Amino acid sequence: RVVILDFGSQYGHLIARRVRELGVYSVVLPHHAPLAAILRHRPRGVILSGGPASVYEPGAPQCDPELWQAGVPVLGICYGMQLMVHQLGGRVVPAARREYGPATLHVDEPGRLLAGLGARVDVWMSHADRVEVLPPGFTVLAHTADAPYAVIEGGDGRWLGVQFHPEVAHTPRGRDILANFLFRVCGCRGGWSMADFVERAVSALRRRLDGARALCALSGGVDSAVAAALVHRAIGSRLVAVFVDTGLLREGEVEEVRSTFSGLGMDLRVVDARDRFLDALAGLVDPEAKRKAVGETFIRVFEEQARRLAAELGPIPYLVQGTTYPDVIESGGGAAATIKSHHNVGGLPPDLDFELVEPLRDLFKDEVREVGRRLGLPTALIERHPFPGPGLAIRTLGAVTPERLRRLRACDRIVREEIRRAGLEGSVWQAFAVLTGARTVGVMGDRRTYGEAVAVRVVASDDGMTADWVRLPHEVLDRIARRLVNEVEGVNRVVYDITSKPPATIEWE
Ligand code: XMP
């Protein structure tokens, strides 16, 4: 396997991806990980990612300088290469001309890294600093018109640096360059697959949770379900799963979770806390206040349940969470700038004394899904759209009442049914209804109505960070609109949300 040190590059996660696509398992660690933490993974190679900083600035992110004595091959990408140069005695300076976009690499001496690529290679550059003086013992493998040191090699061929980004699609032969590093320089064998992941994760979990009990909170979503199924595969009935019915879930969700996990033979406790959530939300209209109320109520309910279970079963030292790699990045756990912190239901109760078990921490969404498939979870669950922790509460603009929740739940079912019927479920990120709280005048039969406008939101996205509205066929929009007005009491107008993210967000609150 390979360790990737993350210096805050927007492409950091892509490197991990590409390496895994080449059949080599990769783990992303923060840049400041001490050498011991790196070596614990027994890496055959280390990759230093790009990053927004300049190595010569005070406080610029560094890696453990001991790395250079560890005898492990290192590939530095962009900032990673500059750091290599900086730490090994060369010099990096601001570039007179910044290089952004496509460039042509002229190969002077292919070495192992550029073997088989020919004399000219199209690459993608994005940097404002450049290497001015190479460290002792380094040589140039390739240059571009603007960068005399575009690919460098040192340390008897173990240390390699590329100024461009081999991980992005705009570097067409990037995959071959990474493959050369992994197979020719590091001597990786490849052949890693998700099946290996499951096998290794299960045996690691067995070792770690040896004889002990673990608790997990299911949210109805993919991540917590897969994490629970994985831990269940490892420790069986020593895992207890709690599912809190907040009353803010979609239609049929509670039954679905119950039948899936009881079917897997899991010890599942469904807690009916619907009234408590309604009480906590009573009178609240501010979105943040609602999120907070839901989050806090969840924690309280979960805490009570944990105490009750400990009294019944004995100590439960571990808490399983479905944290995935994007969560780690998003919450600022990686080096990339903190983008947003979600008040995640299913999050860790802060004053409960658990040791966290996060078996999916290194995985991307589609990898999590693949693990779920291998563990035999139903397709409907695995392909489920994301659903926010605060649930329907943040899609019911204004006051949350049982009646409005019923209304929204009916609208949500219709939207999802029609998207599925149109065969679009797999190609959209989310499709849902929002009760806008706007009252509008309509006419039905011969009577004037004064009902509520419902918004339909259907977006495409890769990761939820940016999104675009989906150009639904007019027939589909028409069917949705007609059904909403005809079938759901109190709805007399339907609008389609055509804003992208940014500037809007996906959810309305
Ligand atoms: P926004 O509305 O921020 O949503 O564009 C981005 C993605 O995150 C989901 N989301 C949440 N998920 N807890 C969650 O677990 C939350 O509080 C929350 N808020 C938004 C949203 O559904 C979308 O997929």
From TrEMBL:
Query: Where does the source fall among the domains of life?
Result: Bacteria
**Cross-referenced CDD domains:** GATase1_GMP_Synthase, GMP_synthase_C
Q: What class of enzyme is it?
A: ligase
Annotated GMPS ATP-PPase domain ranges read: 192-384
Q: Which reaction does it catalyse?
A: XMP + L-glutamine + ATP + H2O = GMP + L-glutamate + AMP + diphosphate + 2 H(+)
Q: Which UniProt keywords apply?
A: ATP-binding, Glutamine amidotransferase, GMP biosynthesis, Ligase, Nucleotide-binding, Purine biosynthesis
SUPFAM superfamilies reported for this sequence: Adenine nucleotide alpha hydrolases-like, Class I glutamine amidotransferase-like, GMP synthetase C-terminal dimerisation domain
For binding ATP, which residues are annotated in this chain's numbering? S219, G220, G221, V222, D223, S224, A225
- Please report a single Pfam family linked to this protein: GMP_synt_C
Which pathway, per its entry? Purine metabolism; GMP biosynthesis; GMP from XMP (L-Gln route): step 1/1
* The enzyme's E.C. designation: 6.3.5.2
Which GO molecular function entries does the Swiss-Prot or TrEMBL record give? GMP synthase (glutamine-hydrolyzing) activity
- Keyword Transmembrane helix listed? The answer is no
> Where is the signal peptide, in residue numbers?
none
According to its UniProt entry, the function of this protein is described as: Catalyzes the synthesis of GMP from XMP.
Provide the assembly information: Homodimer.
Q: Which PANTHER family would you find in this protein's record?
A: GMP SYNTHASE [GLUTAMINE-HYDROLYZING], GMP SYNTHASE-RELATED
Q: What is the designated name of this protein?
A: GMP synthase [glutamine-hydrolyzing]
Upper taxonomic lineage: Bacteria, Bacillati, Bacillota, Clostridia, Eubacteriales
- Gene name in the database record: guaA
